[in-house]
UniProtKB/TrEMBL annotation:
Keyword Signal: yes
Phytocyanin domain location: 28-142
Gene name linked to the record: LOC113713788
Protein name, entry field: Phytocyanin domain-containing protein
Position of the signal peptide: 1-27
PANTHER family: GLYCINE-RICH PROTEIN-LIKE, PLASTOCYANIN-LIKE DOMAIN PROTEIN
Chain coiled-coil ranges: none
Superkingdom as given in the UniProt entry: Eukaryota
Alphabetical UniProt keywords: Signal
GO molecular function: electron transfer activity
The organism of origin for this protein: Coffea arabica (Arabian coffee)
């Protein structure tokens, strides 16, 4: 009887480990905006709705050119809550990618916790954010264990 219970517990632990490994190994890398990248005038809320859902441990890549004489700066902020996101209130926001970090391979942000992540650009006084464009929410879900 004790051997059967030990075997059952061992099998359960093995299965849970396998499921967790599969879920982590299936994490995806998603370029925010796709071929558009992170730029002014693009509706990222619509993009996120069309390209979601996002899952735990997925990585979002923000690509944007570094600022110069002809390119306005871009940035990526993480807003702390839904109210800040809806009103584009950056007072308690965290800068996660400054204007010079989006070039080349871009800036990567991994969705490592199951909680809402509110992203927005503050550049240009947050004009694109207040117009509802350069912002989106990513709320990662647990990935189903099997496709």
């Amino acid at each position: 009887m004790a051997i059967t219970m030990s075997f059952g517990k061992g099998l359960l632990i093995l299965l849970l480990t396998l499921v967790a490994t599969l879920a982590i190994s299936q994490a995806e890398t998603v370029v925010v905006g796709g071929s558009e990248g992170w730029r002014y005038g693009y509706n990222y809320t619509d993009w996120a709705l069309k390209h979601g859902p996002f899952f735990l441990n997925d990585t979002l890549v923000f690509r944007y050119p570094p600022p110069n004489d002809t390119v306005k700066p871009h940035s990526v902020y993480l807003l702390p809550n839904l109210y800040s996101f809806l009103t584009c209130d950056f007072k308690a926001a965290t800068l996660v990618a400054p204007p010079n970090q989006g070039g080349g391979d871009g800036f990567s942000y991994t969705l490592s916790r199951v909680r809402p992540n509110y992203f927005a650009s503050r550049e240009g006084n947050g004009d694109d954010c207040t117009k509802g464009l350069m912002k989106f929410a990513a709320i990662p879900l647990y990935r189903p264990p099997f496709p």
